[in-house]
Amino acid sequence: MSFLGDVFDWFANGDHWTGNEGIPHLVLQHLGISAISLVVAVLVALPIGLVLGHARKGGFVAVNVSNVGRALPSLAILLLAVLTFGIKDPPEVFRSVGIGSIPTFIALVALAIPPILTNTYVGIADVDPDLRDAASGMGMNGRQQLWRVELPVALPLIMAGIRTSAIAVIATATLAAYVGWGGLGRYIIDGLAVQDNAKVFAGALLVALLAIAVELALGALQRVLVSPGLRVDAGPAGEITTPPRPARA
Amino acid sequence: MGSVLAAGYSGSAWIDWSWVNDHTTEILTRLREHVVLAGLALLYGLIIAVPLAVLASRKRRLLAPILSVTGVLYTIPSLAAFAFLLPFTGLSRETALIPLTAYSLLILVRNVVTGLDAVPPEVVEAARGMGYSGTRQLLRIELPLAVPTIIAGVRIAAVTLIGLVPVAALIGQGGLGAMMLDGFQRSFRTPITVAGVLVIALAVVVDAALLALQRLATPWTWRARSIA
User: Fold this and answer.
1) C-alpha gyration radius of chain B
2) What is the pLDDT of residues A88-105, one digit of tens each?
3) What's the CA gap between A52 and A59, in Å, rounded?
4) CB contact residues (below 8 A), chain B span 91-130, against chain A
5) What is this structure's pTM?
6) What span, in angstroms and rounded, lies between the C-alpha atoms of A248 and A229?
7) Contacts of residue B83 in chain A, CB cutoff 8 Å?
């Protein structure tokens, strides 16, 4: 019981709620770098996925990027980026949009691209050919088909990819503390270093709650964005669970 | 930092092959630790997930709660999950294995349920008509037909686990992540690059091996028609 008491005391300590090592500041750092990394990843991956998916070209690459992407060693990317770019504070322009650490930003963007790219590609390329026929029969050109038919139909899968990336980004932003930057990993890494179990546990609790909150928020966003007729719950893992379909004749 | 580097190796090169040549034993040891940790987590994951999924596909109202719980587990970042257990299990292998196993559950349960659901009802009916009992029907008919979907899940789980294991090095569990941290502490890129490339290579090889296994185990999925 005394351990949970220690954790409670840690949260009750007013010092942990103010200043640069305080919970609000670290939560904002964590969310800030996660959000900007996710936005940049969407800006890179979404157009590529849309174009390739619409043309139904490069599927082999897109699907394999996704499989390997799951094993992307973000720790290695982060550490190599630190050795390459150093850990000094980035220029004000970067900091003002939430990028407090260039190496962390690089690792997070690299991590977030594959799930969004693959899910966008698969979502668009797998749109029922009958729907596409109907769209061209109605006189839509390629661009109109993409925006009015393929994108809305693929949206559940695209959102699932974005959710997968968001969860991975929140999780990996925790590692930024290991390379001397901030975010909620601070408490875990610092607590580990001085064997302060209450601090480690409190940090873990905060990171877990943040991840769950982000997942729920994105789930809610998806319900708003996706047409009611197309709802499927892909869940937090967001992967395509069925084996690849046989090639169409 | 940096000065700890043994003479003759280049700390700034992305990869220094002479270091790789001199440290093959260490590299293979780390690779083996990595495979063991990911493999055990996958094994435990299957042992828990298959019965859970069979239960959920039989008793439908259990499916939503099981998926919710495994979904929450999946959402918890790995470093946080290790940190949760640290006060109780210390810097032990269990501290890494329990969360890693938990991560595989969502993927495995969902794929096993999807696979069982996709078994055509007329096949189940035919089996029943031939006098198959519940257990025999499950083991001889339903699970074998669900194998392609189950292995699709195993592939995702295996590759995900291989990518998660490096973080376990932060709580002292070795594997290729330990090589990355070791290189970082000496400002020496080669071990980080080698470990990173090996993580990806391991994922690719395991993924391909599981796909091959699936094709061998379920020849009917590709022998009748040619399926890409």
Assistant:
1) 22
2) 888 888 888 888 899 999
3) 8
4) 106-107, 110-111, 114, 118
5) 0.86
6) 25
7) 188, 191-192, 200-201, 203-204, 207
- Judge contact between A111 and A172, C-beta under 8 A: yes
What is the spatial distance between Cα A102 and Cα A78, in angstroms, rounded to a whole number? Answer: 10
How close, in Å, is residue A231 to chain B by CA atoms? 16
pLDDT at A236 over 80: no
Q: Does B199 touch chain A (CB under 8 A)?
A: yes
In Å, how far are A70, A99, A165, A173, B212 from A168, measured between CA atoms? 10, 17, 5, 8, 29
Taking the C-alpha atoms of residue A200 and residue A185, their distance in angstroms, rounded to an integer, is: 9
Under 8 Å CB-to-CB from A32, ≥6 apart: which residues? A97, A98, A99, A100
Q: Is A245 a residue whose pLDDT tops 50?
A: no
Reference A106, options A129, A76, A133, A132; nearest CA is A76
d(CA A132, CA A54) in angstroms, rounded, equals 10
CB-based contact (8 Å) between B187 and chain A?
yes
- Closest-approach residue (CA) in chain B for A188: B83
Phi/psi for A86 (5° steps) reads 75, 175
Using the beta-carbon criterion (under 8 Å), do B163 and A82 form an inter-chain contact?
Answer: no
pLDDT by residue for chain B (228 residues), tens digit each? 444 565 578 777 888 999 999 999 999 999 999 999 999 999 999 999 999 999 999 898 999 999 999 999 999 999 999 998 988 898 899 999 999 999 999 999 999 999 999 899 899 889 989 989 888 889 989 999 999 999 999 999 999 999 999 999 999 999 999 999 999 999 999 999 999 999 999 999 999 999 899 889 888 777 655 444
**b/e B120-131 (16+ beta carbons within 10 angstroms → b):** eeeebeebeeee
Out of B83, B180, B214, the one facing A75 most closely (by C-beta) is: B180
**DSSP character for A246?**
P
CA dist A222 and A160 (Å) reads 8
